[in-house]
Predict the 3D structure of the following.
Amino acid sequence: MPAILLMPFVAIFGTSFYQPVLSIVLGAVNVLLAYTVLLKLFKSSTISLWISLLYAFGTIQWYHAEVGSSWYVAHIVALFFLWLALLEIVTKQRLFLIGLFIGAAYLARLPTILSVVFVFIYLRQTLNIKNIFLFLLGLSPGILFNGFYNYLRFGTIFDVGYSLLPIFNEPWYKYGLFSIRYLPLHLKEVFTSLPAFSKNPPFIIPSIYIMAIWFTTPAFLLIIKAKFKTKLALASLIAVIIIALPGLLHGNNGSTQFGYRFALDFMPFLLLLMASGIINRFNWQVKLLIILSVLVNLWGVIMISFLNKWVI
């Protein structure tokens, strides 16, 4: 999907077109879409504005959109279509379009197709055979296109590209491409990994390998206040868990990145979870955590992209 979106620009400007331009523009559009979705759901311009600012400058989307390399732009493109799907879910709820947008996200990042679980939980009361058919009809172009593309590349409709890479002699794939045995290690990394500390300037140096989700976005600690009994929070929580599983079971944790880039696959649902918990408790502590999150991500962008200071 990133390649498809880049084709018009390459046709006009040639292969010298600077790919991060697409990533940065879509990253900005994602923030606008997030604001609109949040406003529709929570009816609060204050909450929507603050969480959108958090999303723009206080999450790892900032760094990955700004770099815009092939791995990263795929996340940003997938997020674009996920936000479009969420916008349709909270407005007109046209199941064909919801499926079409999720299918497009799938063509950028395969795990995002698992966001269908959010659709079935959040819209369960309005689903019937006709709506399910329309949803699957919308989803089918992305799935069929991917299968056809795989057949042209590999002679099979399945995604076997990873299995063809010469990577299985590397230590992080000692149990194969996917294994339940990777789960404890990755959970530990996602929740406990920190930057490097030094007695000399700049004192705190980001790890480009992985850092904990709560460290790169401290405001996500507010998720513990989420209203898990509501349909929105429950659907978001289950979506986070299901979409996270392929990354947590994968031998590689994302390699070079700021924070944990696989979290971008379920970032919208983390934001919805957080919003559900602060809608009636928007106080100075919430604002402080959002500001702290922005400062952490500003530090990461400056250190890695501009000062080239990082550790493994």
In short: The chain has one domain: 2-306. The beta strands are 196-197, 204-205. Residues 2-306 form one domain.
